[in-house]
Amino acid sequence: MRRSRCSSRLVSVTLAAGLIAGGGWSAQLAAQQSAGVEGGAFLLLPVGARATALGQAATADGGTSESVFWNPAGLAVLARGEFAIHHYDAFFGTGDAIVFAVRSARFGAFAFTAYLVNYGDLAVTRGGPEPVGQISPRNLALMASYATDLAGGVALGLTYKLVQFRVDCSGDCSQVPTATGTTNAVDVGLRYDASGWLPAVFGVSLRNLGFPLQVNNKAQADPLPTRVTAGVSVVVVRASAVTGIDARVLADVQGAVGEGSLQPVTLVGVESGVGEVVRLRAGYAFLNSNARGPSLGFGVRFGDLAFDLASVFSVAEAIGDNPPVHISFRVIF
Fold first, then answer.
1. What stretches of the chain show up as alpha helix (H) in DSSP?
2. Is residue 1 situated within a structural domain?
C-alpha cells in the first residue's frame, strides 16, 4: 500500500498533539509542571485576562465568572449574573471559553463553562501538492460549578469537569491516525473574607483532581495536572472619597500534587484603579522554567459591559514569537 507523503508530518503532529495534552510541548505548559507527562495539561493554561494580567495570582480573587478557572469559591461573591467570553492567541494555537454564571441569594451561585483549545489544522497530502484531507487536534473541557457562602465570611466552591483530547480528521483519512481520550475531574476551593478585621481575603484550591486521561490504552494513560494553591489578596490603599483610587496586592503559592515533591512556585500581582471603571494590572509568575516572567493588562467597565486585556511577555522571550494576548468580555445582568 502506498504511504501518504505526509506520514512523517502527521506522526509529528500527532505526537505534538499528544505532548500538548501531556504538557510537554508548550513552554507555557511545561512551565507549570514537573518532569514527566501529564494528560490535559491545557487545563493549566491561564484563562481570563484579569487573572492572567495578575501573574495568575487569582486564588483569593473573586466576584467574576473567571473564578471557575482558578477557585470556584470566588463565584460565591458574584453580585449579579454574568455572561463572559474569553479568548487568547498563543504560539501553539488559540483558546476560547464561554461562561454563563448566575447567583441566587437563597441557593448560591452556579456557572456553566465550555472551553476549547485549538492547535490548528494540518493538510493531508498523498504524493502531490493538493490536500486530500485535514487533521485537527483539539482539547475540550465542559464544566459545571457551584459556590455558596457557609458562615463567617467563608465560601465553598466545587467544579465538575469533563475533559477531552481528540485528533479528528476530515477527507481521506485512510492512513491518518486519529485518537480521542475523555476523563473526569473536579476542582474544590475555599475562600475566606477577613475584611471585618483585616483588609485581606484568603483562598485555597485543589484543581484538576481526577482520573488519568486515556487516549490509546490504559498503560498509556496520563495523569491530570493536579495543583494545590493557597493565596491572599490584601488591600494596601483604600479608595478615598476624593479620588476613588484603590490598590491591592495578590500572591499565590502553587504546588504539584502526586508527583513526589510539591515543587512550589510563586505567583504575584498588583492592581489599582477607580472602582470597576478603570483597572490597571501587573504580575509576575516565578515559574520553574523559561516561561517565568511579567504580565500586564487593564480593564474597563461601561455600565453592564466589561472588557479586560492582558499580555504575557515571558513566552515571547522563550520562543521568539509575539507575546500571547488574552481578551475577556463580560456582560453583567
1. 7-22, 27-30, 49-53, 314-319
2. no
The answer to whether residue 13 sits within a structural domain is yes
Angstrom distance (rounded) from CA 27 to CA 76: 33
pTM for the model: 0.86
* Residue 2: inside a domain: no
Residue 295 lies in a domain: yes
Q: How confident is the model at residue 189 (pLDDT cuts 50, 70, 90)?
A: very high
Q: Which domain holds residue 191?
A: 7-332
* CATH code where residue 68 lies: 2.40.160.40
Quote the Cα angle for 217-220-226, to 5°. 120
SS (H, E, C) the chain: CCCCCCHHHHHHHHHHHHHHHHCCCCHHHHCCCCCCCCCCHHHHCCCCHHHHHCCCCCCCCCCCHHHHHCCHHHHHHCCCCEEEEEEEEECCEEEEEEEEEEEECCCEEEEEEEEEEECCCEEEECCCCCEEEEEEEEEEEEEEEEEEECCCCEEEEEEEEEEEEEEEEEECCCCCCCEEEEEEEEEEEEEEECCCCCCEEEEEEEEEEECCECCCCHHHCECCCCEEEEEEEEEEECCCCCCCEEEEEEEEEEEECCCCCCCCEEEEEEEEEECCCEEEEEEEEECCCCCCEEEEEEEEEECCEEEEEEEECHHHHHHCCCCCEEEEEEEEC
CA atoms of 96 and 189, how far apart (whole Å): 23
How many structural domains comprise the chain?
1
pLDDT in tens, 6-42: 444 444 444 444 443 333 334 344 434 333 345 688 9
